[in-house]
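Repro:
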Amino acid sequence: MDTQNKHSSRPPLEGITLEKIVTYLSETLGWEAMADSIPVRCFTHDPSIKSSLKFLRKTPWARERVEALYLLQVRKNG
């Protein structure tokens, strides 16, 4: 069986929690750059992992943008 085809058919975020995504972005980009990319209050005013997770779990459009930003950063950073 070709394992490369098996891996490419998996969703790119499988096994990665939202908490890991937000933590990675906050550590690599910083909150200010995250707010510039996705201007939501949880990134612009007193940002924290906890407040961001609470907001993103209830707001699908924002979560999709954060996940896309994460994938972009992971590809960019190798």
